[in-house]
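Example protein
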Amino acid sequence: MEGVIDFSKSKSEFITDLDKLLLQAVKLRAVIPLPVHEARGVDASGIMSLILSSIDCSSSDAKCCRENHDTPIPVMEFEKNLILSKYGISLPDIGGYWWGIRTPCPLLSGNNCICYTERPMVCRYYPLQPGLAKDRDGIMYSLDSICPQAPILARKIYTITYELRENQEHLMLQTRRMS
């Protein structure tokens, strides 16, 4: 899947390309690459925190927790211990320092997570998928298109990035005229 969006196009052409990218990702169940990079000297954690804080799972169908994943979802030892002591659910050792949750997730009750406020880190970061896409600028962050919130978030992120680039170019032109 081609994940490159040309930010130099007109806004309408840009939106058309973005719509195609999002539709293709959802259709193929592929990750949606974001215009956010983790490169030498760049810390994208603030941007990622904003992205994650805007995800609302309250009306979700919990598809991410029901989907058949080929491998267990990894959780850390302290998370495994919390799940066992608080909810009585034992998780299998999947090697190293990791334990795993198989889908459908045993922590689901209907479409709700019984440990949502204490959910494992991997669940807190979902649908963020760091490192699954790369381009010439470094490792890109991506969103898992299975999440219904992913295309909405991606559209916001791309649109904001487009507007920031547009404003930056405008400011640079004004600065040149002043000098």
In short: Residues 11-178 form one domain. Helices lie at 11-28, 45-53, 63-66, 77-87, 121-125, 150-178.
